[in-house]
Amino acid sequence: MNKELMEQIYDSLSKAPEPTVVGGQDQTESELNLRTKRQWVLEDQYEYDGLRPQKPLPFEAGQGDLYLDLKTNTLYVPDRTWTDEELLQLIDWNYRQAHAASKRFPEKPVLPQKYSESKFIMRAVESVRKLYDADVSKMQMATNLRKAEYGFSSQWWVYFSPYKERTMRGQGQEVWTYNVWIDPETGVVVDTTAVNLAAIRTPIDEAAAKSVQKDPSWIKEAIRIVKDKQGEQRKIVKTYLTDTEVNNKRGMVAVDVLLEDGSKYNAEFRYPSMMLRCLIYEPANKGK
């Protein structure tokens, strides 16, 4: 990209993170969902196969039904089914924006010296294997170190996803990804979560909630996960369901598992399958 385009992008980003969208009102929800799936497939082709639009996204009216007014940061979209070319133009623009932003704000947090990045990756791989019996060796991986800010502590993030994940989603295939968060100071895994965006959530109604409260199998499964899969050796002193009102609406059952030293695990299960969604660990000295 030339300097002029970079400055145009900077100016666009300074107005608002996302442009105001005008048009597209005549599209139904199903049409929008179909467009999203098409865009996922094209984005993978853009990123991995080198597919590009024939022309860049127009910045003036009259050059196409899809165009971006940079002066007002307004995106005008067609009231019809988008063409692949239009989807590619928008994908290309989004990637150009991300590239420009990375050039303008290139600073990265200083990596902690106590553990290497490879050590964090190894611990993330092992955590996914233990909890979900999943082999991520052939999956794509991304890592990032989140700085301590906005009330959140510094954490390493390791993300595993299948190759061409967006294409799989666009074709209606089931996709599982894994997020692992690790404390950079101690090297302890604090959150391992399995994500399936296509999974259907079943809200827990009042009758089902009463049944869950009386069913000891949720507690037993949480203990099994913590002891047998996580390999926890410390004594468990208390277990109970937590945040039931919120989790009932989400279709989740969460169990707190308290240890003798004050540390705690929170195991969250999908209802009614009892499939583990995530295991979160909170050390006793958190916040000290």
Summarize the structure.
The protein has helices spanning 3-15, 29-49, 84-104, 117-132, 165-170, 206-214, 217-229, 244-250, and strands at 20-23, 67-69, 74-77, 140-146, 155-161, 177-182, 189-195, 236-241, 252-259, 264-270, 275-282. The protein has 288 residues and is of the alpha+beta class.
**Helix share, percent:** 25-40%
Rg for CA atoms? 23 Å
- What's the order of the H and E elements? HEHEEHHEEHEEHHEHEEE
Number of strands: 11
Description:
The protein is an alpha+beta fold. Helix content is 37%, strand content 23%. It is built from eight helices and eleven strands. It has helices at residues 3-15, 29-49, 84-104, 117-132, 165-170, 206-214, 217-229, 244-250, and strands spanning 20-23, 67-69, 74-77, 140-146, 155-161, 177-182, 189-195, 236-241, 252-259, 264-270, 275-282. Strands 4-5-6-7-11-10-9-8 form an eight-stranded antiparallel β-sheet. A three-stranded mixed β-sheet has the order 1-3-2, with no helix packed on it. The termini are far apart.
